[in-house]
Amino acid sequence: MNKITVLEHLKACSEAARIFVEGLMSELAKTTVDAINEMEEVKADKPKAVSVTIPVSGWKSDSSGDYPKYYDILTKDAAIGDRTDIVIAPASLKSAKSCGLCPTSETLAGIIRIRATGVPSENISAEYIIEKGKE
pLDDT per residue over 36-88, tens digit each? Predict the structure, then answer.
């Protein structure tokens, strides 16, 4: 073989190796993204938002501090030690403010307890998310 033929052969081999490696890298990247997406979809403790209406009826009273009125949202997913975030819908913010809705909630076995200074004058639309606590 002459020098030009050997050089052209080396260039062709180098180009074939580059294309092969690029293909492997592309396949690896796609497989990695697919695996991450699959793990995200099957994550067991991923909290999900649940829509709820907090009605004007069904409120109870006790003598506990600044928020004597309370309403229990029943849910089989709640347990003592869980943390619950309640997000009020924008259309219900005025009603939540006027009844003095407490910004925190209490989680009991099967119950999310919300408190207020008074009973709301209209239903409050909201969502809750439960983050599982340590058992």
Answer: 888 777 665 567 889 999 999 999 999 878 999 999 999 998 999 899 999 99
Q: Which two tokens stand for residue 86?
A: 């309640």
Domain definitions of the chain by residue range: 1-43, 50-131
The answer on pLDDT for 26 being more than 90 is no
Distance, CA of 36 to CA of 39 (rounded, Å) = 5
**Cα Rg of the chain (Å, integer):** 29
1: how many CB neighbours lie within 10 A of its CB?
8
135: helix, coil or strand? coil
- Asked whether the beta carbons of 74 and 53 are under 8 A apart, the reply is no
Cβ partners under 8 Å of residue 27, min gap 6: none
pTM comes to 0.65
∠ CA 132-87-57 to the nearest 5 degrees? Answer: 100
